[in-house]
Each structure stands twice: as structure tokens, then as C-alpha cells.
Amino acid sequence: MRDGYIKVAAVTPKVSVADTKFNVEEICKRIKECEGQGAKIIVFPELCVTGYSCGDLFFQELLLRQGVEGLYAIADFSKHTDAIIFVGLPVCFRGKLYNAAAGISRGEVLGLVPKSHIPFYNEFYEGRHFTAGEPNFGEITLMEGRNPVPFGSACLFQTKSIPGLVIAAEICEDVWNPMPPSIRHAMAGANVIVNLSASDETTGKDVYRRDLVKGQSARLICGYIYASAGIDESTQDLVYSGHNIIAENGNILSESSRFANETIYSELDIHKLLEERRRMGTFPYRDSEAKEHFSVEFSLNPQEVTLTRFIDPAPFVPGNRQEREKRCDEILSIQAAGLRKRLNHTHSRCAVVGISGGLDSTLALLVTVRAFDSLGLDRKGIKAVTMPGFGTTDRTYQNALSMIKCLGADFLEISIKDAVNVHFKDIGHDPEIHDVTYENSQARERTQILMDVANKYGGLVIGTGDMSELALGWATYNGDHMSMYGVNASVPKTLVRHLVRYYADTCGEEELAGVLLDVLDTPVSPELLPPSEGKISQKTEDIVGPYELHDFFLYYMLRFGFPPKKVFRLARLAFSGVYEDKVILKWLKNYYTRFFMQQFKRSCLPDGPKVGTIAVSPRGDLRMPSDASARLWLDEIEELEEKNAVS
Predict the structure, then answer these.
(1) Which CATH number does the domain 321-646 belong to among 3.40.50.620, 3.40.50.300, 3.30.950.10, 3.30.70.260?
(2) Alpha carbon distance 356, 359 (integer Å)
């Protein structure tokens, strides 16, 4: 189970109602298919051994006996199958009938989990046949000559061969209840919940069902495998659709078509779930709950898993346009609300923004305009300052002028050339030497101008740098690194682009939209080196690497704590056909090197609003020592480089 992935399946087999022999044959066929696909956790629907819609036939002793015999036929079939399998059947225990989920592995029935909440309302009549299960019932001998089987809803399935994997089961209605058993299971350590279901289909119910499974997996930070009865159940009064869902921590990994009796597969990331629970200090592990549960052991042979789940190359940017536009509007609102509060608190009616004609300063200006509009302040209170230097091109300069004009801000132009040349003379630097001194002197001069302009007008300097630049340390210390409020501080570069595009698409002003689109089309550059034939000569992504890669690395390193090997594995899948492995490794090494070396810049960041799940503020999300060694991470990358060179 490299990198924590385990393949799972949710299956809706063909069913012949009350024909256990037919059903067992179909279940065994599907087990064989799932085994061929490498699935290690295989989940079938509720009461699938007999069929869910048997009605009063559940009172027939023959059906119940054949159900148990069918269970052991499935168990015998699984003797050489490397998986844990969950099937549903009716079970008699202590004079009562229970709707149970049976866990099976390598020829053994491991445990029986009775349904805790029995529906007896509207179209549901389970209460006519079944009794509600309790956490700890003891053991049951289902068939003469077979081992006793643990029976109770507080059952956990664990394997020593995959440390950390803990599985628990609930059945259909259990998850629709205000207090699902899976809550207790999760607090006792379960991180994979299987649900054997027979949810009938009514108009709109699929949406609610999907949200329910998705929400439960998020609430419990778990993998959730939901397998439902399909179209072969009796249609006397109800129809079943076989709506199967595999979810992980609030994300739907795989979902079946309805009315098709499909088998769906995906890979659960157990390591990610464990890391997320460790990170969330409020996620409860209760020893009292653990003591009330009992564990049964099973064996699995961990194997390499080929990932089929979608790996988004832009994890910060929603792929769905409607969701993306909603996210963009929300982020702009968060940024503007943060700035609005700061302006109110400081009694300031002025904001100072350095405008380069690039993406970040454009977004900062748009946010500032939004904040001023929400306060009812005159946009002339926004001092939009252009500061042409040695690397400024006509394109960015003209875009800056047009943007300021369209937005109605107060325009100031202050060239830095003379001041920087005087500074070069003062420190004895040859202006023909285009080194870091040459570049940073310009950045610091610009910051000094902005700070002094803010003092002159009683305003605030609005920071423009984004989170991707801060992660890489791509900022001049006490230059563009510094401001009085950094509105972009937790916005990654890949998202900056979409925020500006969203503004262009929704502003309703043709001239402004045209300028914003040209800004989007301009190469990212600090413009600190002289242009080449009037065009930008210094392209940031040529120096530090593609921001789409760095944002991908940033997301999986900080959000989930993944090691470089796992980040690289995911990046290869996400950017297949876009970047060669050696290119990904080159920039992965660059990312980790810069991230560790540049923490001192992040340790003294100005205030700024958090907009997403990740931020690098030293007062919030990232409490990292400035002197931390990157050795462990770089050693792992070097191992990857050696392996990649050999292959």
C-alpha cells in the first residue's frame, strides 16, 4: 500500500428476490471481477444475499437458513481472495431477526454488524420484520461446524498488514439518522465506513443521498463506501437504482450511474485521512468509545495501487465554471472585507497601491476599489502609483495607466531611475552590473516611495504579493515584501489569474475588461532588468519555475503534509503529457529548497486575510522555524532523481 492508497469497490450485483443460490453466484462473480481490478475492500448492498424486498418472506425459516448457507458459500469462495468483503443478509439471534452486514475475509466470516436504526415510516416496513441492533451482543454460531462469529454494531475490522486502516460498517437508514453509528465508530478510530444500503429511488433523492454521504465523509474525515440495491429488486411498490458512491473527506471520488447495476472503484488515501485527523485538534478520539467497541482481525497483502482517481493539476481552482465564479466572488469579498475593516479601524480614507501593470498589483487595486465602494468612499482616495524603472516596458506601463483611469483612482507617477542611480553611487555599485543589488535596490526604492506617500496622505500601503511568491520567497525583503495590509497574502498565483479574469468578465466595462485581459496575457515579471527590444526580458517562471507546478507542490505539502515522493507521484499523474518527470523533479527540488531557505521572510509578514484552506501567515497557519533544515526532504528528492535517471 505505497503512499497510503488502498483500492475499494462498491458493487450492485444482479439479484433474484428470495433466490439465494442465484444471488450467491452473482456475488461471487462480482468478487472475482473486483479481485481482478485489485480491490481490497469490496462492499455489496443491504440484504443482497436474499434480496432486500422479500417482505414477509423474511419470516420463512427456509429463506433464513438458505441465507446463512449462502453466506458461508461466499466465505468459502473468498478463501483465496485477498480482500475484505461485506455482504448483507437476515440473521436470527436470541429469538429475534436482524438486518446484518457480514464482514468476510479469506474463507472466514469475521463479524456481523446489525442495523441500528430500523425504518418503519412512509414506504418502509422493516420494523415489521427486524429488530434494532445494539453495540455489543456477543457471539453467534450461525452454522454447525463453523466458528462462532462476533455480533454487534460496535465492531471494528482491523489488519496488522496495513497499520492505521480501521473499517466499520453501518446499514442504510443508519446514516440518515440524527446520530449515525459511524460517528461512534470514527471516534473509536474507524477511518473507513462501509454502508450496505437499499435506498429506494424517488424524485430528487439522489441529490440528497449524494450530499449525505459526502457530508458524512467530511464530518468524520473518513473514506465512505456506499453500495446500494439495484434494479433487480421487486418493483411491486418501489424502484431501486443501485446508486453507489465512494467518498473521501468531503470529496466524491466515484459515483455510479443510476438504474445500471454498476460496480465502481477508487482508491482511498488512508495516510491523508490519518494526517488530516492529526491536524484537526478538535477531531475526537475517545478512549471510552474505543473500549465500547470490539475489534476483529483480518489479513491483507498490501500491493502497489495504480491510481485511477482524478488528480487535479490546479487544486486551488475549481474546475466547474459555476463553482469557480462563485469562489472568485467569495474571495474578492473576503479580501475587500478585510481591507474595509482595516481602513475603518485606522480611520483612513486613503489607500496607496503600487501599480506595475502586472497580475498581483492589478488584483490588489481591484480589491481596494471594492473595499472603497463598500464603504462609500471616493475612489480618488486610492493613490495608484506607477513607478517606472529600468525594466518597465511600454505594455505594462500603458496597461497600468488605462486601468487606473478606468477605475477612477487617483494617478501618481514617480520614476525611480534617478533615485536608484544616486543610491548606486552612494553604495558604490556599478549600474552595469545587473545582479541582486541592482534588482533589490529598485524594489526597496519603490516600497519607500509607497510608504512615504501613505504618510503624506494619511493612508495605508496595500500589499500586492501573493502566496505563491511568499512560499518561494520571491520577494525583496523589506521591499515588495512589506506593506501595511497584504490583501493577496493567501491567494496562490494560479487563482490570482482567475480572480482577475472573473472581474474582467463581470465588470460590465468594455475598456476595463480589455485592459485586464491584456494583463492576463502579459508574462509574469518583476521588470527589474532592462527590456530586450522593448519586451520583457525577465520572466519569473523561467527563473523559479512554472507557478502551476509550485502551487501544486504547495497545496499537497502544506494542506496534507505529503512527503516529496508522494507529491511527485501525484504531480506525474496530474501533469502527464505536460511536463517530463525530470522537469517536475527539477522544480520540486527548487520549491523545497526555496521554501525552507525563505521562511525568515514569512516569519514577519504584514497582516492579510486568509481566503482558503492554506495560508503562510506566522500568526495563523504556518508556525515554522526560520532555521529549519530541508535535508530530509531534499534527500528524498535526490533518491527520486537517482531512480528517475536509472529508469
Answers:
(1) 3.40.50.620
(2) 8
